[in-house]
Amino acid sequence: MSFCLIILAGGNSHRFKSNIGKPYQKIAGKSLIEINVNKARKFKQIKKIILVFNKKDAKRVKSIKLKNVKLVIGGITRQQSTFNALKYLKNQKGISKVLIHDVARPNFSLRLFGSIIKSMKNARAVVPKIRVQDAIKQIIDSSKEEYIVGKRRDNLFLTQTPQAFNLKEIYHLHKTKSDKYKDDDISLYMDLNKVKFIEGEKNNFKITDKSDFENLRNILKSNQSVGIGFDVHRLTPKRKLYLAGLRIKSKLGTLGHSDGDPVLHSVTDAILGACKMGDIGQMFSDKSKKFKNIRSTILIQKVIEKIKLKGYFINNIDINIITQTPKIDNYRNKMINNIAKLCEISNDQINIKGKTTEKLGVIGKEKAIACEVICSVIKYD
User: Of 99, 119, 183, 374, whose CA is between 20 and 30 Å from 80?
Assistant: First the structure.
């Protein structure tokens, strides 16, 4: 089965009450859009991703620099936005199923996402649901304060997204029964016996206001971990000096099996430590010829891809570069820019400090450069 994921981010976020709409709010440097996209990309069945956005947010969408994501302008209503994506998709070859998902539900687990995909093997539509647990009251006339005191809840449930459908069928329903649309796409199915409901997740709640966003932050804090990295390299003639992936003009360079970049090696080790994935020596052995003189920029990019597959995202990186020379102040901003690009995070998630040893020891005598790093990560699943 080949799926397309449609992420709906075309609303106005009125209830969120912020100058920055919900889709562009960030946690650990990632917008809600990016969190959803990154999770979906873990599944080989997802062949295409469509982001439906509000045209007033065009600049914000472009600033995220999403790769291999089709951008579609949304409509006035949720139904119109969904149909805009479906109209584009129906002319695309190789896609038979579609997942329709609200950007404001970024905390679905990979288990739930995988279960929805798997359940579509023998279903026309699959929708996650959770049971209503709180007592239900219905207002009859608020002006007279008239209520139904008790309402049965054993036959009530809440639906969530992602919701999965046969592409041709959901397109046809949107085209012919748009007047029946209520709240979500499953409302177009008059016979719910055609729909397979699976158990949803309490943490897959919809972010509506800022209190929901803070709730999500608190949940993710429990999934935060920290790693430490350290590296030191001897300075020697006839070698190039690389720090944080930058070529630094110097008479001396670092001795190492790879390019000897102590900053990127320490950052890489700190990331691996935070994700409980060993260390750089285990992943890229210094006994392997294929890593001889390899740029550390390549190694750290490989690590970033690996941690994303496990659901980890970098929260922040704090770096101490310990060297008598060169002076780090001259390169700090370029280093931050480069590390941010390599780690796919923003500049404000990185801090770099230059330290000396007051001319003490091998570092003070300009015979070596060392680096120590602390990195925190968040696991989104």
Answer: 119
